Amino acid sequence: MGTLIALEGLDGAGKRTLVGAVVKYLTDGGLRVGTLDFPRYGRSVHADVASEALKGAHGDLANSVHAMAMLFALDRSGAVGELSDLLAGHDLVLLDRYVASNAAYGAARLHQRGDDEFVGWVTDLEFERFGLPRPDLQLYLDVPVALAQERARGRESADASRTIDAYERDRGLQKRTGEVYRDLAAEDWISPWWVLTPDTDPDTLAENLTFLKKEHGTP
Ligand code: TMP
User: Fold this and answer.
1) Which of 9, 70, 121, 204 has the most CB within a 10 Å radius?
2) Which H, E and C letters describe 28-47, residue by residue?
3) pLDDT (tens digit per residue) in 43-56
Protein backbone atom coordinates (compact mmCIF):
# COMPACT_ATOMS: atom_id res chain seq x y z
CA MET A 1 0.00 0.00 0.00
CA GLY A 2 1.52 3.31 -1.10
CA THR A 3 1.95 6.47 0.93
CA LEU A 4 -0.42 9.24 -0.15
CA ILE A 5 1.12 12.72 -0.36
CA ALA A 6 -0.73 15.87 -1.45
CA LEU A 7 1.04 19.00 -2.67
CA GLU A 8 -0.87 22.24 -2.11
CA GLY A 9 -0.30 25.89 -2.92
CA LEU A 10 -1.59 29.04 -4.57
CA ASP A 11 -2.10 29.32 -8.31
CA GLY A 12 1.34 29.89 -9.85
CA ALA A 13 3.20 28.58 -6.78
CA GLY A 14 5.18 26.14 -8.94
CA LYS A 15 3.58 22.86 -7.81
CA ARG A 16 3.73 21.20 -11.21
CA THR A 17 7.46 21.86 -11.65
CA LEU A 18 8.19 20.59 -8.16
CA VAL A 19 6.15 17.40 -8.65
CA GLY A 20 7.98 16.70 -11.93
CA ALA A 21 11.42 17.04 -10.32
CA VAL A 22 10.52 15.01 -7.22
CA VAL A 23 9.00 12.21 -9.27
CA LYS A 24 12.10 12.02 -11.48
CA TYR A 25 14.42 11.77 -8.46
CA LEU A 26 12.30 9.09 -6.81
CA THR A 27 11.79 6.96 -9.92
CA ASP A 28 15.51 7.21 -10.77
CA GLY A 29 16.06 5.84 -7.26
CA GLY A 30 13.88 2.82 -8.03
CA LEU A 31 10.68 3.75 -6.23
CA ARG A 32 7.32 3.17 -7.85
CA VAL A 33 5.68 6.61 -7.90
CA GLY A 34 2.16 7.38 -9.06
CA THR A 35 0.76 10.86 -9.68
CA LEU A 36 -2.66 12.40 -10.12
CA ASP A 37 -3.64 16.04 -10.63
CA PHE A 38 -6.85 17.60 -9.40
CA PRO A 39 -9.03 18.93 -10.95
CA ARG A 40 -9.04 16.08 -13.51
CA TYR A 41 -9.61 18.29 -16.55
CA GLY A 42 -10.69 16.45 -19.70
CA ARG A 43 -11.57 13.32 -17.73
CA SER A 44 -14.23 14.55 -15.32
CA VAL A 45 -17.30 16.50 -16.35
CA HIS A 46 -17.38 18.06 -12.87
CA ALA A 47 -13.84 19.38 -13.24
CA ASP A 48 -14.55 20.77 -16.70
CA VAL A 49 -17.75 22.50 -15.61
CA ALA A 50 -15.94 24.04 -12.63
CA SER A 51 -13.21 25.39 -14.89
CA GLU A 52 -15.74 26.78 -17.37
CA ALA A 53 -17.63 28.47 -14.53
CA LEU A 54 -14.43 30.11 -13.28
CA LYS A 55 -13.96 31.50 -16.78
CA GLY A 56 -17.44 33.07 -16.84
CA ALA A 57 -19.73 30.31 -18.21
CA HIS A 58 -22.85 28.75 -16.62
CA GLY A 59 -24.54 31.93 -15.37
CA ASP A 60 -24.07 32.59 -11.68
CA LEU A 61 -22.69 29.12 -10.84
CA ALA A 62 -19.27 30.42 -9.82
CA ASN A 63 -20.86 32.85 -7.35
CA SER A 64 -21.77 29.95 -5.07
CA VAL A 65 -18.86 28.90 -2.89
CA HIS A 66 -20.55 25.64 -1.95
CA ALA A 67 -21.57 24.80 -5.55
CA MET A 68 -18.01 25.28 -6.79
CA ALA A 69 -16.59 23.23 -3.92
CA MET A 70 -19.20 20.52 -4.59
CA LEU A 71 -18.06 20.27 -8.23
CA PHE A 72 -14.42 19.85 -7.18
CA ALA A 73 -15.47 17.32 -4.53
CA LEU A 74 -17.56 15.34 -7.06
CA ASP A 75 -14.53 15.24 -9.38
CA ARG A 76 -12.54 13.64 -6.53
CA SER A 77 -15.41 11.35 -5.58
CA GLY A 78 -15.23 9.91 -9.11
CA ALA A 79 -11.55 9.19 -8.55
CA VAL A 80 -11.89 6.98 -5.45
CA GLY A 81 -11.32 3.77 -7.46
CA GLU A 82 -8.41 5.28 -9.39
CA LEU A 83 -6.79 6.43 -6.15
CA SER A 84 -7.07 3.03 -4.55
CA ASP A 85 -5.56 1.38 -7.68
CA LEU A 86 -2.70 3.90 -7.64
CA LEU A 87 -2.05 3.25 -3.95
CA ALA A 88 -2.12 -0.50 -4.49
CA GLY A 89 0.42 -0.35 -7.31
CA HIS A 90 2.95 2.23 -6.07
CA ASP A 91 5.24 3.02 -3.13
CA LEU A 92 4.27 6.70 -3.19
CA VAL A 93 1.37 8.54 -4.76
CA LEU A 94 1.88 12.26 -5.25
CA LEU A 95 -1.17 14.46 -5.83
CA ASP A 96 -1.06 17.97 -7.31
CA ARG A 97 -3.91 19.50 -5.25
CA TYR A 98 -6.33 17.49 -3.14
CA VAL A 99 -9.08 18.06 -0.57
CA ALA A 100 -7.18 20.86 1.19
CA SER A 101 -7.55 22.99 -1.98
CA ASN A 102 -11.29 22.94 -1.47
CA ALA A 103 -10.91 23.74 2.22
CA ALA A 104 -8.49 26.62 1.66
CA TYR A 105 -10.08 28.32 -1.36
CA GLY A 106 -13.67 27.93 -0.09
CA ALA A 107 -12.91 29.17 3.42
CA ALA A 108 -10.98 32.10 1.94
CA ARG A 109 -13.89 33.01 -0.34
CA LEU A 110 -16.13 33.11 2.73
CA HIS A 111 -13.56 35.10 4.75
CA GLN A 112 -13.29 32.17 7.16
CA ARG A 113 -10.16 30.63 8.70
CA GLY A 114 -8.86 27.08 9.03
CA ASP A 115 -10.84 26.22 12.16
CA ASP A 116 -14.18 27.61 10.94
CA GLU A 117 -17.34 25.94 9.64
CA PHE A 118 -16.45 25.61 5.95
CA VAL A 119 -13.38 23.44 6.54
CA GLY A 120 -15.54 21.15 8.70
CA TRP A 121 -18.10 20.92 5.89
CA VAL A 122 -15.41 19.89 3.39
CA THR A 123 -14.00 17.30 5.84
CA ASP A 124 -17.41 15.70 6.37
CA LEU A 125 -18.30 15.77 2.68
CA GLU A 126 -15.10 14.47 1.16
CA PHE A 127 -13.53 12.18 3.74
CA GLU A 128 -16.64 10.94 5.57
CA ARG A 129 -19.39 10.92 2.96
CA PHE A 130 -17.43 10.41 -0.30
CA GLY A 131 -14.87 8.14 1.36
CA LEU A 132 -11.76 9.74 -0.11
CA PRO A 133 -8.53 8.36 1.35
CA ARG A 134 -6.86 10.62 3.90
CA PRO A 135 -3.43 11.78 2.83
CA ASP A 136 -0.50 10.53 4.94
CA LEU A 137 1.35 13.81 4.44
CA GLN A 138 0.43 17.24 3.04
CA LEU A 139 2.95 19.68 1.63
CA TYR A 140 2.26 23.41 1.39
CA LEU A 141 4.43 25.26 -1.09
CA ASP A 142 4.41 28.69 0.57
CA VAL A 143 5.19 31.27 -2.11
CA PRO A 144 4.55 35.05 -1.80
CA VAL A 145 1.26 36.05 -3.45
CA ALA A 146 2.93 38.57 -5.76
CA LEU A 147 5.37 35.96 -7.10
CA ALA A 148 2.63 33.37 -7.58
CA GLN A 149 0.41 35.86 -9.44
CA GLU A 150 3.27 36.95 -11.65
CA ARG A 151 3.89 33.32 -12.62
CA ALA A 152 0.18 32.62 -13.25
CA ARG A 153 0.03 35.64 -15.56
CA GLY A 154 3.26 34.64 -17.31
CA ARG A 155 1.82 31.18 -17.89
CA GLU A 156 -1.25 32.76 -19.47
CA SER A 157 0.78 34.70 -22.03
CA ALA A 158 2.96 31.67 -22.80
CA ASP A 159 0.09 29.20 -23.22
CA ALA A 160 -3.29 30.26 -24.63
CA SER A 161 -5.03 27.23 -23.04
CA ARG A 162 -4.11 28.49 -19.55
CA THR A 163 -6.15 31.69 -19.40
CA ILE A 164 -6.30 33.21 -15.96
CA ASP A 165 -9.54 32.45 -14.08
CA ALA A 166 -11.65 34.30 -11.52
CA TYR A 167 -9.72 32.90 -8.54
CA GLU A 168 -6.32 33.69 -10.07
CA ARG A 169 -7.35 37.27 -10.86
CA ASP A 170 -8.40 37.99 -7.26
CA ARG A 171 -5.31 38.95 -5.27
CA GLY A 172 -7.28 39.33 -2.02
CA LEU A 173 -8.58 35.78 -2.40
CA GLN A 174 -5.10 34.43 -3.08
CA LYS A 175 -3.77 36.18 0.02
CA ARG A 176 -6.57 34.84 2.25
CA THR A 177 -6.17 31.37 0.72
CA GLY A 178 -2.50 31.44 1.74
CA GLU A 179 -3.55 32.34 5.28
CA VAL A 180 -5.98 29.41 5.47
CA TYR A 181 -3.35 27.03 4.09
CA ARG A 182 -0.99 28.21 6.83
CA ASP A 183 -3.75 27.59 9.43
CA LEU A 184 -4.28 24.06 8.09
CA ALA A 185 -0.54 23.38 8.16
CA ALA A 186 -0.18 24.79 11.68
CA GLU A 187 -2.93 22.55 13.04
CA ASP A 188 -1.81 19.51 10.98
CA TRP A 189 -5.31 19.30 9.56
CA ILE A 190 -6.14 15.63 8.71
CA SER A 191 -2.44 14.61 8.70
CA PRO A 192 1.06 16.06 9.22
CA TRP A 193 2.02 19.01 7.00
CA TRP A 194 5.40 20.24 5.82
CA VAL A 195 5.68 23.88 4.75
CA LEU A 196 8.04 24.35 1.78
CA THR A 197 9.67 27.62 0.73
CA PRO A 198 10.06 28.79 -2.89
CA ASP A 199 13.75 27.80 -2.86
CA THR A 200 13.01 24.22 -1.76
CA ASP A 201 15.47 21.88 -3.42
CA PRO A 202 13.44 19.11 -5.12
CA ASP A 203 16.18 16.50 -4.63
CA THR A 204 16.37 17.16 -0.87
CA LEU A 205 12.61 17.03 -0.59
CA ALA A 206 12.52 13.77 -2.55
CA GLU A 207 15.27 12.34 -0.36
CA ASN A 208 13.27 13.20 2.77
CA LEU A 209 10.22 11.50 1.32
CA THR A 210 12.29 8.40 0.58
CA PHE A 211 13.65 8.41 4.11
CA LEU A 212 10.17 8.72 5.58
CA LYS A 213 8.92 5.90 3.46
CA LYS A 214 11.81 3.59 4.29
CA GLU A 215 12.41 4.37 7.94
CA HIS A 216 9.04 5.18 9.34
CA GLY A 217 6.37 4.14 6.85
CA THR A 218 4.21 7.16 7.54
CA PRO A 219 5.41 10.48 8.97
P1 TMP B 1 -5.98 24.66 -10.94
O2 TMP B 1 -5.51 26.09 -11.10
O3 TMP B 1 -5.07 23.84 -10.12
O4 TMP B 1 -6.31 24.08 -12.26
O5 TMP B 1 -7.36 24.75 -10.11
C6 TMP B 1 -8.38 25.64 -10.51
C7 TMP B 1 -8.79 26.52 -9.37
O8 TMP B 1 -9.71 25.83 -8.55
C9 TMP B 1 -7.65 26.99 -8.50
O10 TMP B 1 -7.82 28.38 -8.26
C11 TMP B 1 -7.82 26.22 -7.23
C12 TMP B 1 -9.31 25.88 -7.19
N13 TMP B 1 -9.65 24.61 -6.56
C14 TMP B 1 -10.59 24.59 -5.55
O15 TMP B 1 -11.12 25.62 -5.16
N16 TMP B 1 -10.91 23.38 -4.99
C17 TMP B 1 -10.35 22.21 -5.41
O18 TMP B 1 -10.68 21.15 -4.85
C19 TMP B 1 -9.37 22.25 -6.46
C20 TMP B 1 -8.74 20.98 -6.93
C21 TMP B 1 -9.06 23.47 -7.02
Assistant:
1) 9
2) HCCCCEEEEECCCCCCCHHH
3) 999 999 999 999 99
